Amino acid sequence: MRQGISIKAELEEISNIYPQLDKTWFVTLTCSNCGEVTPNMVSIDPCTQIEIVKATVNFAMKCKLCRRENSVSIETADKQIKDRTIESEQWVQMATFDLRGFEIKDVEFGENWSIVIPSGKTYSDVDLSTGEWSEYDEGSSTSISILNMEYKVDKLK
Questions:
Q1: Which residues are CB-contacts of 37 (< 8 A; sequence separation ≥ 6)?
Q2: Which sequence ranges form a coiled-coil region, renumbered to this chain (predicted)?
Q3: How far is 144 from 135, CA to CA, in rounded Å?
Q4: Other beta carbons less than 10 A from residue 29's beta carbon
């Protein structure tokens, strides 16, 4: 199954938000076979390569309840993600995951985000753990912010 994580937020003087290529995603997973939920957030690191039968994945774990081997791969982000312009309070897809035996239940925003402002300046390694971020851009003498960040997880075709 493929799932996508999308976000929306109130944006002030921000033209784009995107996860950096090395972003580690922190998620809670549900076993598709038995419904067992991981008791804690697990980390899915795009730099981690795990060899399993017939595949290389970014995360693999055996379900504690049904003992089924499940896995997750982060699909390569679309190159267009860095060049898009997003609107305040509109849903925008940030990442796509290929899940074998799992479903994403919960997501933590965490670190390693890039923020682009209308002048083209990019802020890297931004921490969105709280779902909010603000800064003052001296070059344009404007306040920039992300407020009330939300996410949703969608099943994809």
A1: 28, 29, 30, 31, 105
A2: none
A3: 5
A4: 23
- The answer to whether residue 82 scores a pLDDT higher than 80 is no
CB–CB of 96/75 below 8 Å?
yes
Q: Are 125 and 32 in contact (CB under 8 A)?
A: no
Rounded to two decimals, the pTM is 0.91
- Are 27 and 37 contacting, i.e. CB atoms less than 8 angstroms apart? no
Task: Name the pairing type of β-strands 113-116 and 122-126.
Answer: antiparallel
CB 115 within 8 A of CB 14: yes
**Residue 41 φ then ψ, to 5°:** -65, 145
Q: What is the pLDDT of residues 88-122, one digit of tens each?
A: 999 999 999 999 999 999 999 999 999 999 999 99
Distance CA 42, CA 29 (A): 8
- What are 147's two structure tokens? 């407020």
60 residue type, one letter: A
Phi-psi label, residue 131: left if phi above 0, alpha if psi -120 to 50, beta otherwise: left
